Amino acid sequence: MKKNYLIPLLFGAVLLLAACNKDADFKYYHYSDEDYALLSQYLDLPDLPYNYAIQSPVLFGNVQVKPPDPDLATLGRVLFYDKHLSKDGTISCASCHQQEFAFGDNKAVSEGVFQRQGDRNSIALMSVASFASNYGTDLNGPGGKRFFWDNRAETAVEQSIGSMTNPKEMNMTMQEIVAAVKAQPYYEPLFRQAFDNPEITQDNVTAAIAEFVNSIGSLNSRFDIALDHNRKAGKFDPASFPFDDFSPLENKGKALFMLNCSNCHGTDMVNAPFMPSLNGSALFLSDGASNGLDELPADAGIGGFTGLQFEMGTFKTPSLRNVGVSAPYMHDGRFATLEEVIDHYSTGIKPHVNLNTILKNQDGTPKRMNFTDDDKKALVAFLHTLTDETVLNDVKFSNPFKY
Ligand code: HEC
Ligand code: HEC
After folding, report:
1. Domain 222-387 has CATH 2.60.120.10
2. pLDDT digits over 347-392, tens only?
């Protein structure tokens, strides 16, 4: 008797499951045994892909981040670490964007294929997703904050093409990139998993890399945790309230930072304020500035790209997240330590024609912040609270190659 009930019940359950499947767009992630065996010859990948959604205790404010697709991000991770994608087989994205340095490197200027010296300091990548609503990333469409020190790339896709084809970086044509990807046996199953149409094309390659890069969100620093605690206690503005979780020295540094630096670098390190171009031009909502490194800059920076006089010698204002591990500093890596950076702002600002008004006195001469030794220690202590250990250690961002 009981069996008679069981059959329609089971049938119902199967129907229900099928319906749920469809509704939730449920996807089975497991690779086939054959695929997984092939992948495992080369790669150390989990059978079930990692979750690439960005984790953070802070309220995101206006930062809207679409959760990255785990299969696409997994493919992107492999491409990011794959040296086959460079002319001499020695360089991958990760050569210049190393996890331990918050996806920057520790050289003044990066070194590409054939040991060619680059022109600029590698940019730590954790800011890409952190700024997703501002950046013109592919998660949010073009039109936001741009990439590179001179803002020359609008999207993460455009940016990655720039890196792969740069003669001082990977030095490939996009046709060579596609051919190099097709030549590796592990990509066929990874593309099948990531795309409905798994053909290996330039667009698919760059979409996957962008997905991985966009998933590197760094929002779990001590600063974020303290900010979250404050916000839960109703104290929203990080500039107005000391953090209960900070030492007196860190709070002193925070206060100095909010007063002297946050106009350009942001108060919550997520939403860097936009700096409308000096003449109010709507052409670029540039977040760039001159912070007075040189009287006559050797590198035209944003102006070199836009051709606009008032942007000559200005550079993207970088995110300071993980700045404690991303030395050396500035577009040319001229400062080896945070102490040197603080000394620059304290007494070293040069009278550049496009020096940002925030760093000028009323008579136009460069400002002297004249920090005391204690001030300097406090600022450095504060900057170290911006380090996010989770991003530096999370296996889902690490090198997947077995060799
Ligand atoms: C040879 C070293 C090197 C390689 C290889 C390299 N990069 Fe970069 N990357 C840099 C440097 C240097 C910059 C800053 C360059 C500039 O602004 O002109 C940069 C900038 C970036 C930025 C801009 C970040 C920002 O906030 O503006 C992103 C994103 C990026 N790289 C991702 C990648 C990806 C993805 C790859 C692989 C396809 C890659 N890079 C390969 C050195 C490298
Ligand atoms: C007028 C805007 C402005 C102000 C104010 C400002 N900065 Fe900057 N900061 C910049 C710009 C622009 C750069 C990049 C300059 C370059 O590389 O040419 C930068 C670079 C940096 C860097 C290097 C980051 C890296 O990844 O290389 C640090 C650290 C830094 N600033 C800290 C500070 C501190 C601390 C203060 C306050 C004492 C401050 N900044 C005030 C605009 C500003």
Report:
1. no
2. 999 999 999 999 999 999 999 999 999 999 999 999 999 999 999 9
Residue range 252-293, pLDDT digits in tens: 999 999 999 988 887 776 544 443 333 333 233 346 789 999
CA–centroid distance, 370 to ligand 2, in Å, is: 16
Q: Which ligand is nearest to the CA of 298?
A: 2
Which segments of the chain belong to CATH 1.10.760.10?
38-218, 222-387
- Closest by alpha carbon to 75, among 53, 96, 98, 52? 52
> Does the beta carbon of 345 sit less than 6 angstroms from any atom of ligand 2?
yes
Ramachandran sector of residue 290 (left: φ over 0; alpha: ψ -120 to 50; beta: rest): beta
Q: Return d(Cα 326, Cα 295) in angstroms, integer.
A: 26
Ligand 1 in contact with 213 (CB < 6 A)? yes
Handedness of CA 34, 36, 53, 258 (dihedral sign): negative
Pocket test for ligand 2, best of 330, 342, 355 (most atoms within 8 A of CB): 330
Q: Is 128 in the pocket of ligand 1 (CB under 6 A)?
A: yes
Do residues 110 and 120 make contact, with C-beta atoms less than 8 angstroms apart? yes
The ligand with the least distance to the CA atom of 111 is 1
| Least confident piece of the model among 46-50, 258-262, 263-267, 336-340 | 263-267
Q: Is the CB of 147 under 6 A from ligand 1?
A: yes
- Out of 263, 291, 341, give the residue to mutate to test ligand 2, the one with the largest number of ligand atoms within 8 Å of its CB: 291
Domain 38-218, CATH: 1.10.760.10
Structure tokens at 29: 């992630």
At residue 14, does pLDDT exceed 60? Answer: no
Place of tokens 């942001």: 266
